């Protein structure tokens, strides 16, 4: 099952963008982990320099205006099965399944117009799997960059 999660906007200055969306639209922050902010309702902001470093490692993408400055984000806990569907349909990939620095498996690809789409495991799924491996909540928080309170809530 694939679930739409959010539009992710890549921002030059996360603090300025966060304040802009909060002030103008009175958006409530769902999660703020510094370089990534998710608002209730499906808009996320990601620090551009961090995002592009992970999306296009080894290339000079920060100065290349042809690279997408946003992505659509979906979640599935059946990421391997979804990857197979992409391969069967010959969808052009940015990358195969990767494990992010925060331990989430993701795959990124392009739609017919070149728009970037990411499908990743839900962080709830990631947290539960790390818990099944026997990691304590504090270690899971460290590995996922998620707040300890969130980890404890998921593991209950």
TrEMBL record:
| Top-level taxon | Archaea
Q: Where is the VOC domain?
A: 3-122
Name this polypeptide is given: VOC family protein
- InterPro entries according to UniProt: Glyas_Bleomycin-R_OHBP_Dase, Glyoxalase-like_dom, VOC_core
Q: SUPFAM superfamilies this protein is in?
A: Glyoxalase/Bleomycin resistance protein/Dihydroxybiphenyl dioxygenase (SSF54593)
Q: What is the lineage of its organism?
A: Archaea, Methanobacteriati, Methanobacteriota, Stenosarchaea group, Methanomicrobia
């Amino acid at each position: 099952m694939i679930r739409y999660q959010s539009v992710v906007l890549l921002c030059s200055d996360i603090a300025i963008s966060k304040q802009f969306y909060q002030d103008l639209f009175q958006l409530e922050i769902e999660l703020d982990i510094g370089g990534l902010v998710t608002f209730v309702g499906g808009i996320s902001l990601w620090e551009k320099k961090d995002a592009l470093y992970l999306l296009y490692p080894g290339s000079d993408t920060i100065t290349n205006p042809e690279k997408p400055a946003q992505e659509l984000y979906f979640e599935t806990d059946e990421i391997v099965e979804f990857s197979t569907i992409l391969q069967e349909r010959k969808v052009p990939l940015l990358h195969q399944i990767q494990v992010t620095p925060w331990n989430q498996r993701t795959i990124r690809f392009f739609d017919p117009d070149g728009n970037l789409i990411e499908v990743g495991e839900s962080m709830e799924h990631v947290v539960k799997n790390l818990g099944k491996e026997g990691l304590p909540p504090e270690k899971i928080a460290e590995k996922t960059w998620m707040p300890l309170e969130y980890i404890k809530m998921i593991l209950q």
